[in-house]
Every structure is written in C-alpha cells, then in structure tokens.
Amino acid sequence: MAKKMRLDKLLAHTGYGSRSEIKKLVKQGVIQVDGKTAKDSGLTVDPEVQEVTVDGEAVVYREFIYLMLNKPPGVISATEDRRERTVIDLLEIDDQIMEPFPVGRLDKDTVGLLLLTNDGQLAHELLSPRKHVPKTYEARVEGDVGASDQEAFAAGVTLDDGYVTMPAELAINGKEQAGESVVSSISLTIMEGKFHQVKRMFEAVGKKVIHLKRVSMGPLALDEQLEEGAYRELTEEELELLRRRG
Fold first, then answer.
1. Whose CA is closest to 139, among 220, 197, 225?
2. Cβ atoms < 10 Å from Cβ of 203
3. Is residue 245 over pLDDT 80?
4. Within 13 Å of residue 183, how many CA atoms lie on the same side as its CB?
5. Which of 18, 107, 179, 230 has its CA 20 to 30 A from that of 92?
6. How is 65-90 classified by DSSP, letter by letter?
7. Residue positions annotated with a catalytic role
8. CA distance 241 to 12
9. Average pLDDT for residues 2-30, to the nearest whole number?
C-alpha cells in the first residue's frame, strides 16, 4: 500500500531525475497531476489514486522492488562504501533509485544467492533470529569431511567465541585429492546467520573452507541461469513463497 508522498520524491523514485531536475520540469510546465499542471515539486500526491504525467507519459509507481542477485566474489554486501565495490553498484540506475538493500550479508569472497529489496518488513521477517530461516550453502573444504563431522554439525558445534550453533545438516557430495590433501565438496544447511558462520563451523572441526556459495534462503533458490554478477526480479511465485515463509 503506497503512502502519500512529495511529487519530487515520487518522480525521483521512478527515474525522472534528481529533485533539482524535477523542479526544473515543474517550471517548464510538463508535469501534470490529475490533468492539472503542477506548480510545486513539493506537492503531496497519492500515487495509487492520482494520475501523474510527465510530458504526457503516465508515471507508473512501484513501492517495492525484489531482486535476486548471484553475488560475485570481491564485492561487499552493503549499500555504500568509500573503498569497496558494493552489491548496489552492480544494479542498473533504474533499480538503484528504488533504494534496495541486501537482506543479510555474504562475505566479500562468498558467492551466490543474495536478496535485495526495499521492503523492510519482509527483510525483518527473513532475518529475525526467532524465525530460523534455513540457508543452504555449497562449499569446497580443505580436509576429509566425514561422518564424525556430520554428527558434530547435527549436534551443534562450539565456535571460537563459545557460541554453540543450532543443529545443522551436512551432506558430503564428493572428494578429490589435491596434492597431499583431500578437498571435500559439501552442502550445508544452517538455521542462523552468525558472522562467518560456515567458515567458523569447519574451523571448529579442524578444516578450512576454500570456496563458499549460498544456493538457497528459505524457499528461495538461486536461479542457475544467473551468472555471477547478474540479477533479476523475483517472480510472483517466488515472492509469494517468501511472504508465506516470512
């Protein structure tokens, strides 16, 4: 449900320029609200009820945006940073102006599924520790991951700060010899999202994660057609699944 808002904010959010540029458009007399020429860029409008046009083109307003990103390595899960490239920098300008933010974080070198939205309520529901939304990762781990690790993860492991994790489901997908060491391919589903949790869980059992990819969050699975760095809007079905889960 869209709220009433200033005309310049509405037009900025729908890609018609900065507030100063919109002020110029108002002076040029090309913006109309319900058929009347707008005289003030600070005018309050209701985008769901009133018709706003720019040069005769109807303004289509969306309150929320929901994006699935296949996060590449080397970018951080933040909205802005002075030194590092962020996931927001990967978006088209038309999507950036909707002011989405990442729902949760993936480490700089971790790849895979990241949801971006400006829907604070949905983000809160998905991130709330009380909800225990499952997150599944695929990883390559230096070391011979075996049944004892599966049992330890199922019971909950103690991290370096003394925190005991919730039970996690560890599946072993394969192993290969890499020089003198073994590299194990695994899938891991965790029910919480502590800082560097997957890496720290394996460190707790004497092993090291060398590649990490998130493949699902709750009912939302990473689209395998999305290359690293690419993104798309969620489908109606995906959004409905998330809302039901939230």
1. 197
2. 15
3. no
4. 9
5. 107
6. -EEEEEEPTT-BSSS--SSS-BGGGG
7. 107
8. 30
9. 89
